[in-house]
Amino acid sequence: MGSPRSEARHTDRRGRLIRAASQLFSERAYDEVTTTEIAARAGVAYGLIAHHFSNKRGLYLATIQAAAEDLQVVQATPPEGDGPAEQLRNAIDRHIAYMDHRAAGFLALMRAGNGSDPEVRAIVEDLRWQGAVRVLHALGVDGPVHPLLRAAMRGWVGYLDELIIDHIRHHDVDRADLVRLAADALVTTLRTAYSIAPGAGVDPATVDLLTGPA
What residue stretch is flagged as signal peptide (predicted)? Predict the structure, then answer.
């Protein structure tokens, strides 16, 4: 059994590799990133990649899982605010700010979700859907989600992701405006889903509670 100091060094080097890999995978496609440059950016010996992760794919999966776990913590934190509209906007604002602060990990996560690795896609898809489910639970939707509502919420989550990606790349739109775009888009999405299939959607009276000041 190693000493606390050696275990700390072990964790730190592993973390440095994950952070460096996240940055590089957010900048370029998986096949364009080499383990040599990951080790160089992390400032550790090349052999530590094999020691901690077996190979490049193992490291890649670790970066995706780390980003997903960080995001789950944010999603699980209860939103602040005096009512549903304020809570929704505060939750979206916190989500955007968190992803902006961890831009490399978020972009790596989104790039991975569009890739061909089924295990990675499963991690990203589950993370995105769990975020949608938390919104639905807050609106009183429990149990199986109707296919129409499922499709609507997946579309909204994708919309929110694209807003964040644009924000990270350009930073030329106020975050408050992004929050309003996302919140109003959710309201419109839920109202439209209900108009198509009343039995499948969220009650309009509940959706009205999400409408904040103009």
Answer: none
At 83-100, the pLDDT tens digits run 999 999 999 999 999 888
28 phi/psi in degrees, rounded to 5: -140, 165
d(CA 22, CA 36): 14
Please give the Cα distance from 159 to 162 (Å, whole number). 5
Instruction: Give the CA angle between residues 198, 203, 209 to the nearest 5°.
Output: 150
Instruction: Give the integer Cα–Cα distance in Å for 95 and 103.
Output: 12
| Segment 109-148, tens digit of pLDDT | 777 665 667 888 888 888 889 889 999 998 999 889 999 9
- For the entire predicted model, the pTM comes to 0.78
Nearest CA among 79, 94, 105, 133 for reference residue 22:
105
**How much of the chain exceeds pLDDT 90, in percent?**
57
CA distance 64 to 105: 8
Query: Domains of the chain by range and CATH?
Result: 62-208 (1.10.357.10)
